[in-house]
Design goal:
The protein has helices spanning 7-14, 28-34, 53-62, 79-87, 101-110, 137-140, 154-158, 160-164, 176-182, 192-207, 219-228, 238-258, and strands at 18-23, 41-45, 69-73, 92-95, 146-151, 171-174, 211-215, 232-237. It is α/β, with parallel strands linked by helices and 259 residues long.
């Protein structure tokens, strides 16, 4: 039995536009709930959410029956971290702050078994192999791993064309908050200079035959990124969805009660 097909990777290769959302609550039940919402993909965030390998694994398990494809963002592009999330069952990995082709090539190797890569061959007891039930996993897994790299500062933008030339990188995700701050706009991703940089990057990514991705949290940003040609677009963050709706609900009814 071969490794399961990565339908998210296949959809990116076809050029499909995929709508996703961020999971920052670090909770399996919340992830399972979000998996019923209809998103094409969901990011289990290991960089800015309080996740560890066990909570990441639990969210992967919670999303196993969901039509939403789980993407795991590791906190940093270290081979040992990537090995852990792949063994836990992730097939798509998002790596922050990629600044060079050399770094991108190292990430590709971390996602592949020898001799093409350096991923540790310890699949017998791993969830990825369904605990040895997928007997051809080692021979077939490489083709089903999707690597997404984040370009989110001026150094990454300067190296973008070199990063795009790296075989094995499936998509490039632009990080508007980090990029805008590094450009001197203190998190103001709506600044015209930042928007121009993002639009140019998305155009270059598409021209290179890779999938461009980005996160937007306002209607204006989301619509703008779609118009720019973003292919995998995150349109919200679970924590913000919760607090914004909760605050609105509380405020509305408190105002009526006090009115």
């Amino acid at each position: 039995m071969p490794a399961p097909e990565n339908t998210f990777k296949q959809a990116l290769a076809r050029g499909d536009t995929l709508i996703g959302c961020w999971l920052s609550l670090a909770d399996a039940q919340a992830a399972e709930m979000m998996g019923t919402a209809g998103f094409d993909w969901l990011v289990i965030d290991g960089e800015h959410a309080p996740n560890d390998i066990r909570s990441i694994r639990d969210q992967l398990m919670a999303l196993a029956a969901s039509p939403s494809h789980p993407v795991v963002r590791v906190p940093v592009g270290e081979a040992w971290l990537i090995k852990q999330v792949l063994d836990a069952g992730a097939q798509t990995v998002l790596v922050p702050i990629v600044e060079s082709a050399e770094q991108a090539r190292a990430l590709v190797r971390a996602c592949r078994y020898p001799p093409q890569g350096v991923r540790g061959v310890g699949g017998a007891a791993a969830r990825a192999t369904r605990f040895s039930a997928i007997d051809d996993y080692i021979a077939t897994a490489d083709a089903q791993i999707c690597l997404l790299v984040q370009v989110e500062n001026r150094a990454g933008m300067a190296a973008l064309d070199d990063i795009l030339a790296v075989e094995g990188v499936d998509g490039v995700f632009i990080g508007p908050a980090d990029l805008s701050t590094d450009m001197g706009f203190a998190g103001n991703s709506a600044a015209p200079e930042v928007q121009e940089a993002i639009a140019g990057a998305i155009s270059r990514i598409r021209a290179a035959g890779k999938a461009p991705g980005v996160l937007g949290v306002t209607e204006a940003a989301i619509g703008g990124y779609l118009d720019m040609g973003a292919q995998f677009l995150a349109v919200g963050i679970d924590a913000l969805i919760l607090v914004h709706n909760a605050r609105s609900l509380a405020g509305r009814w408190k105002a009526r009660a006090q009115g």
